[in-house]
Specification:
Radius of gyration: 22 Å
Oligomer: single chain
CATH class of the largest domain: Alpha Beta
Helix content: 25-40%
Order of helices and strands: EHEHEHEEHEHEHEHEHHEHHEHEEEEE
Strand content: 15-25%
Number of helices: 12
CATH topology of the largest domain: Rossmann fold
Shape: elongated
Number of domains: 2
Number of strands: 16
Largest sheet: 8 strands, mixed
Length: about 375
Amino acid sequence: TAAARPDDGTLTVGLLLPTTGDGATIGQFMTDGARRAIDEINAVGGVGGRPVAIVTADEGATPAEAADAIEQLIDADVDAVVGPASSTIALSTLDLLVAADILTCSPSATTLALDAFPDDDLFFRTAPSDSLQALGLAQLAELTGETAVAVAWLDDVYGRPFASTTIAEIESRNVPFRLVADIPFRAADDDFTDEAERVAEQEPGVVIVVADASSGSRFLGALGAAYAQVPNDDVPDIIISDAMRRRPSPQPILDLPPAVRDKIRGLAPAAGGAEDLNGPFATNAYDCANLIALASVVAGSDNPRAMARELPGLTANGEQCETFADCASSLNEGRLVNYDGPAGPVQLDASGEPSSSRFDQFDFGEDGVDRSVRQLVVNA
């Protein structure tokens, strides 16, 4: 356990987000969101009468690169961090941040494996865990009115716990669901024909596919071939996880039989919410920065553990407020607050996990590009 960190009176926030590599584009959206929040905070006097300081470090594309960046932030004596963006990097490096006694908020790491991470109450996130998405997939399956459900899933560290949680949610619902197929597939396999045909043989009314973009697109192709000669009315509803929403090319979707493509829908964490905070997870990073600053206001300190203790109370049972300025004003007048960000309500449970979140329901157009259909609120 790290020694107690001194309170120097200045809240210093590190931005641990990707600025190079494949993640740079999405990293820029999140960086813009966090900086926007801190600029607004500083425009109304900062925290404790001092401007919030920012230190940036490139998360990079690998855990090793992220670990180097974390050392830079530790050397800069940051009190809190917005990041990492990547679930894989968060799992590999969060222990370094916890050991350094740094309060950490990820705007986009959704992996189930973080649900029970030994974070010593120093980690929270504003993007919903995949466990909440699993609940949403089960809800979406229920809304189809079908009762025979098949689940096909990528057999890796992402797909296994996600599929297991989805199946548990299906089996726990008070509807006559029947799990007719539970089919894993491996990314290293050259062909998914056997797995797709095993799904089709069970004649499910709805198929849930949990996979990443690459393997998921290949599995949809195999599923399309399995149903190519089936009458349109007999093609099941197909529900996919968010990682399959966007692929390097729309071609895998375009190659599907239209009757199959038209039955695909999926869920992904809602990304929008503010005209001037566009881009995936920009509002989530904005929320991270605001909640860190508000926790410092309530704690009267920039000590990470003091701030962490105040986080759950900022998103429930108080006066609704949507900006740092409004929330801080209420807090300074002795009132409790319920922070709602630009994308809507933020509800954190006692462990720092979102207990409610908005998801985009999406499908694919004739051009093979994803499109938002409506939004679904999922409550734990």
